Amino acid sequence: SKLKLWGGRFTGKTDPLMQMYNESLSYDKRMYAQDIRGSQAYARATCKAGILTTEERDTIISGLEKVREEWASNTFVIHPEIDEDIHTANERRLGEIIGTHIAGKLHTGRSRNDQVATDMRLWLRDELEEIEGYLIEFLRATVERAEEQIDALLPGYTHVQRAQPIRWSHWLMSHAFMFLSDLERLRELKKRVNKSPLGCGALAGNPFNLDREFLAKELGFDGCIQNSLIGVADRDFVVETLQWSTLMMNHVSRWSEDLIIYSTAEFGFVTLADAYSTGSSLMPQKKNSDSLELLRGKSGRVFGQMAGFLYTVKGLPSSYNKDLQEDKEPLFDCVTTVQNSLQIATGVVATLTIYPEKMKAALTMDMLATDLADYLVRKGVPFRETHHISGACVREAEKRKLSGIDQLGLEVLQSIDERFGEDVLEVFDFERSVELRSSTGGTCKASVIKQIEELTKVLQRA
Ligand code: ARG
Q1: CB of 324 sitting under 6 A from ligand 1
Q2: Which of 62, 165, 177, 345 qualifies as a FRET site for 81, CA 20 to 30 Å off?
Q3: Could you say which of 1, 73, 101, 159 is catalytic?
Q4: What are the Fumarate lyase N-terminal domain coordinates in residue numbering (predicted)?
């Protein structure tokens, strides 16, 4: 019978465009396995509640197994006029395989409202697990590079103006710590995703004394959602995933931006492996950092999905409303984008060539003006005063058209301030400047090693 699942009270036909507008199967079929798994657990629970005999239960479970095989082998035949979504499609097909008399008992007390929320959470749970794995791989690759490239120094920038020398590994680790926070937030989020809405029914709960705790356990959830109205209405787990992704992709984007700048000929600090670059159709010499630009660009896409869905749920009345069907496309796309982006970023950092000589050549003596001021601080001069004295040295070097403050010579330095001693010449050493930054979080070697150790500890637990 080509009857819609909910066709009982209807006599009029659905408008053809409405049919298309309403369907979600074209994208929610992605959750076919979760839908089947949820239904199999539901059959066990309804059997336990005395709705199904053990025979009926087993018939349903093995029938659903056949439906699963059809999806897996790409032989599931969709009937567009009645298969509205993955839930109706699977139930329709189950009825054809085992007969509608038994198949018709499966949905007792259940609604697509608790069913779809269950499917989504089951699906997302696995995807988040995968994302966590990719994030850890990215962190591992970053830490490896930081260890192996610990000796390279480069200019640190503020306002993209040369500021103070830092270690390249310090730069790497700065991003790693942002992503570490993402990892922590992801683990929090996973807890909230993994709660069972199954058994909430359409909105009011289950009237057949269904053991929801048993059902939750069967499906590997950490407990049940405690209120049936919110069980079917809650899409905070979708919003939160989109928000998490927005912030994480924002970190990806900022990381990419630095590398895009560093890979220009003007900087020349790094080059991307061919595997993550593309060429120009017109200019034969070009090698573009397309991977990084896409990583930066796709963060905007994720941000849009987050904002869009947040608008969708804002102001919805209680319990289920069809607006909620709009959760899937942004979430699916976001998850794919995040998974791909993390893998690309890992590939980029693992294969990146760095040029320590060019990094070093970009260091200029004016970047040690703070160290020159600090020299006098160590002799007891107040910093506000030393700042001016060092500034006068920079001005003097500029006036004399010297390459840097180190070229002024002791005599000139002493003419600017007599407290400059012979040992002032030691200041003009980039390595020294870096090594002086030895407090926690600084860019000296020991501190960066400590950062690496901190992160490695977390990753070992992962
Ligand atoms: N396809 C729907 C969705 O994705 C399933 C739930 C439909 N429930 C309903 N009462 N119309 O949200």
Answers
A1: yes
A2: 62
A3: 159
A4: 8-304
Pair 252, 323 in one domain: yes
Q: What is the pLDDT of residues 24-61, one digit of tens each?
A: 999 999 999 999 999 999 999 999 999 999 999 999 99
CB-CB contact of 38 with 122 (8 Å): yes
Residue 462 falls inside a structural domain: no
Q: How far is the CA of 308 from the centre of ligand 1 (A)?
A: 19
Is 440 a domain residue? no
Question: Is the CB of 447 within 6 Å of ligand 1?
Answer: no
Helix (H, G, I), strand (E, B) or coil at 224: strand
In a domain, 269, yes or no: yes
Residue nearest to atom 12 of ligand 1 (CA): 325
> How many distinct structural domains can be found in the chain?
3
Is the CB of 113 within 6 Å of ligand 1?
A: yes
pLDDT tens by residue, 100-154: 999 999 999 999 999 999 999 999 999 999 999 999 999 999 999 999 999 999 9
Tell whether ligand 1 has an atom less than 6 A from the beta carbon of residue 24. Answer: yes
Would the pLDDT of 215 be above 90? yes
Is there a catalytic annotation at residue 159?
A: yes
Residues 44 and 160 in one domain: no
Residues 6+ apart with CB under 8 A from 56: 47, 102, 105
pLDDT in tens, 243-283: 999 999 999 999 999 999 999 999 999 999 999 998 888 88
Answer with the one of 83, 103, 123 that is the final residue of a domain: 103
Q: Are both 19 and 148 inside the same structural domain?
A: no
Residue nearest atom 4 in ligand 1 by C-alpha distance: 325
Q: Is 438 a catalytic residue?
A: no
* Any atom of ligand 1 within 6 Å of the Cβ of 137: no
- Whether the pLDDT of residue 310 is over 80: the answer is yes
Q: 396: domain CATH number?
A: 1.10.40.30
Residue 408 pLDDT? 97
Domain range for residue 415?
A: 365-428
Mean model confidence pLDDT for the chain: 97
CATH code of 64's domain: 1.10.275.10
Confidence tier at 2 by pLDDT (50, 70, 90) = low
Q: Is 302 helix (H, G, I), strand (E, B) or coil?
A: helix
**End-to-end alpha carbon distance in the chain:** 52
Q: Name the residue with tokens 């020294």.
A: 432
Query: What letter does residue 322 receive in the DSSP assignment?
Result: G
Burial 223-244 (b: 16+ CB within 10 A, else e): ebbeebebbbbbbebbbbbbbb
How high is the pLDDT of residue 1?
A: 47
Helices (H), 6-76: 16-22, 25-28, 32-48, 54-72
* Pair (239, 159) in one structural domain: yes
